[in-house]
Structure formats: structure tokens, C-alpha cells
Design brief:
Blueprint: E1 9-10, H1 12-20, H2 29-32, E2 46-50, H3 55-64, E3 85-87, H4 89-99, E4 103-104, H5 109-114, E5 123-125, E6 131-132, H6 136-144, H7 193-207, H8 211-214, H9 224-235, E7 238-239, E8 242-243
Parallel strand pairs: 1-5, 2-3, 2-4
Antiparallel strand pairs: 5-6, 7-8
Helix pairs in contact: 7-9
Length: 246
């Protein structure tokens, strides 16, 4: 087996075969071939996935869908997985992985990095042909190498994609976390001037000063180009047609 500090090497195709139920044993030749020099056990792979609708599931299955063997498509729904045990939230998945032998699952980076006891995670084959472990640094490369051109804040972000971004040390499974806000806040039922100002003030804090807290919470800070775009977007938010203070 692998030492505590090391994980498996996995490709998107092998991962898709596992989560689809086509590879069921840890010593399957497809896994063993990526991890030469280690003796993998013959035990059955216990697949853990989210039991609730999840953006984490959507990002993960969008990555799996880059392999032609994944037939389920991208989805936020737990029903996208034909096998495995569901658990609520990232914390539920992390807990099952940590307390059940021979499991595999997926969680947000902050849960992987801050879990106690520590979790072992796979090195994933990336765009440039390297096996890369998840970290703040390798995820930051995914952001910086895929955000040179972005739409306006009120534009169409459905095609913004960080999956399998270029770069020798880029982790291939990454995404923004989004907050959706009305540009004209008076359209929100029960919204008043004070609440609108408090909301926009919080968003300015999150985008500017809050970025200094990101790394300590195991999130990647936004690049300055994205911060600038967000500030421009926030300045366009109004209440009853009037701009709101920062």
C-alpha cells in the first residue's frame, strides 16, 4: 500500500471507470499500471459521493465527462452515480472516507487540506502530462492559466472553464465559487435601502480585504485581474436606480 503522505496516480479515464463501476478492485491492472512499484490490495473499491445536490459534484463530474468512458454526463445530482454510498455535504463525504477502509471519494480542497486526521489524495494526470497533487499552489495555477479573458460581471459565465487548464503544475479539477446578485436590488422582494447597502458592503469586503483570509481557509485568493473585474461589477449594482456605497 501507499505511505500515509502519498496517494495514487489517477487519470480522468481511470477515475471515470471507478466512479462508473467498471473498475471495482484496487489492484485492477488499469490502476496498478499507473502506480508501478506499489502492491495494491485486491479489496473492493468503496465509492463515496455526495447524497445531496452539489456544485462540488457538478465540477467533479464535469471533469469526469472529459473522458469518453463517462456516460452519465455532468450533473449536480447524486443520482448521476450508478454505484457507491452517498453522504451529505463535503464533511459527510470526508468523514466516510476517513472512517471506512478502501474508499475513494471527492471533496472540496479546503476539506482535503484541513481534515483531521489527514486525508490521502490522488495525484491527477493534467493537461501537460504530469501527475499533480491538489494544493493551493497547483489550484492557483488553474485559475491564472485559464482566466486571461473573462466576460463582464453581467455577462454569460456559463462557458468559463478551469478544467484541465494548461501548465506543468496545474491541478486539473478547479472552479470559481460564484455569488449571483441582482444588478438592480429593488427587484428582490422585501429588500430595502439598508439591507442593499449591507449586502454590497459585504461583497466589497469579500472581494478586497477578505482575500487576505482565503489562504488560511484553504481557498485560493482571486487574481488581481478578477478582483478588478469584481469591483467594476459591484459598482454597477443599484437600489431604485441609485448606486450603493462601497
Amino acid at each position: 500500500m501507499f505511505p500515509e503522505s502519498t496517494g495514487l496516480n489517477l487519470t480522468v479515464t481511470v477515475a471515470a471507470e471507478i466512479f462508473q463501476g467498471n473498475i471495482t478492485k484496487w489492484n485492477d491492472p488499469a490502476i496498478q499500471g499507473l502506480n508501478k512499484g506499489f502492491t495494491l490490495p485486491p479489496n473492493t473499491i468503496q465509492v463515496i459521493h455526495r447524497s445531496d445536490g452539489s456544485g462540488t459534484t457538478f465540477v467533479f463530474t464535469s471533469w469526469l465527462a472529459r473522458s469518453s468512458v463517462w456516460k452519465q454526463g455532468a450533473s449536480k445530482s447524486a443520482s448521476v452515480f450508478p454505484i457507491g454510498t452517498g453522504a451529505p455535504g463535503n464533511e459527510g463525504v470526508a468523514s466516510l472516507i476517513q472512517t471506512t477502509q478502501y474508499t475513494i471519494g471527492y471533496v472540496e480542497l479546503n476539506y482535503a487540506l484541513s481534515a483531521s486526521p489527514p486525508m490521502t489524495y490522488a495525484a491527477v494526470f493534467n493537461h501537460d502530462g504530469n501527475y499533480v497533487l491538489p494544493s493551493l499552489a497547483t489550484t492557483a495555477y488553474a485559475v491564472s492559466n485559464s482566466t486571461a479573458v473573462l466576460p463582464a460581471g453581467n455577462g454569460d459565465w456559463s462557458k468559463v472553464n478551469m478544467l484541465n487548464a494548461t501548465g506543468p503544475q496545474t491541478y486539473p479539477i478547479a472552479s470559481f465559487t460564484y455569488i449571483l446578485v441582482y444588478q438592480e436590488l429593488s427587484h428582490v422582494p422585501s429588500m430595502n435601502q439598508a439591507t442593499a447597502e449591507a449586502l454590497v458592503s459585504f461583497l466589497y469586503f469579500a472581494v478586497i480585504n477578505g482575500q487576505h483570509l482565503a489562504s488560511g481557509l484553504s481557498y485560493v485568493p482571486l487574481p488581481q485581474s478578477v478582483v478588478a473585474l469584481d469591483i467594476t461589477t459591484l459598482s454597477s449594482i443599484t437600489f431604485n436606480g441609485h448606486s450603493l456605497p462601497a
